[in-house]
Amino acid sequence: MTPANQALAAARTLSPAEAAHAPLGTAEMLSRLVAFDTTSRNSNLELIHWVRDYLAAQGVVATLVPSEDGAKANLYASIGPAAEGGIVLSGHTDVVPVDGQPWSTDPWALVEKPDGKLYGRGSCDMKGFVAAVLAHVPAFKQARLKVPMHFAFSYDEEVGCLGAHSLAERLMGDVPKPRAVVVGEPTMMGVVNAQNWGGGLIATFTGFEAHSSMTHLGVSAIHFAGEFIHWLNVLQEELAARKRTDIDTVPGHTTINVGVINGGTAGNILARECVLNWGYRTLPGDDAMEVERRAEAYLMGELLPRMRAKHPSANIDLKRRSMVPGIKAEENVVATELALQWTGSNRTFAVPYGTEAGIFRAHGVPTVICGPGDISQAHQPDEFVAASQLKACDAFIARMIEWAERQ
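Now predict its structure.
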């Protein structure tokens, strides 16, 4: 084991007090965070309690915002004066599953390889940024901050940004109005000031069971769900033909995806139920509700009457699972200018994926996305973040601290 990996392994089991009194670098802090299996289906409380106690050991009081069932929690905390004009540093603590992925290392143990990459679930998406923020707590404490730094760590981002709504509401209600929010999703430390709007929906088709040889007596929920999927594919082709050239997202058009299908009981029975978990992502500035509005019109105006013509008990239920607001460049000028200053860059980007940025922006605070790692590594087996990216994030935060001392 290399000295670097020995240090990562040693950090993996540190208590909050040990971590506070023997300050960790960003990589070592990341090793500690990766060791917590915070897959979205699990609780994140063990990690959140560790962070709370780590902050407390350094005199920083954190507030927890629990989920309705108490199984998970958000956390927010502030360092510096109780003044307006501070910066919110936002990150999610959950990660996607590793089930069925061919990992070559233990996903819950951060490993640095000779290529300068640190492997582990969440290393890129997005515990790397959270680790950098936490590793800089001593520097934040020692600095003569003229404006505060606010930490905002959420749960369940990966399943629809479920925790960020209550987190943003509590944080923005409790602290003096911040000047900007930085959401540290992986952008290779580029400054992203526009992102797609994302909608997640559940379409439940209820048919009427019958023997598969007597199709005239029943309604197959799967068959009608299949028609809806075909309709979505046709709509996707229409939307792709509207590709925009004024924004640098890839692809430059609204996208649709059916992620999960469940239905049927046996091969010789007309399916009584079929459930589609589907969603769409709309470019900034486009009609965010077009896909949902047109889908509902098709389902209720065309498919449902045909289903009920075969049997009156047939039904279609369309429910929204999640909604992630987008952000527009023109809404985030202040945050953009600051982030460009701290990165030393002179250009911005737009991205097609969704983050919690729009949720914070909805509270009236300019918001950008900027964090270490490449989004192409997110959700992959052997997920990694380059050590150089963590160093770039360290430099970003150091410049932020210098700025906050000059205000």
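DSSP finds twelve helices and 15 strands in the chain.
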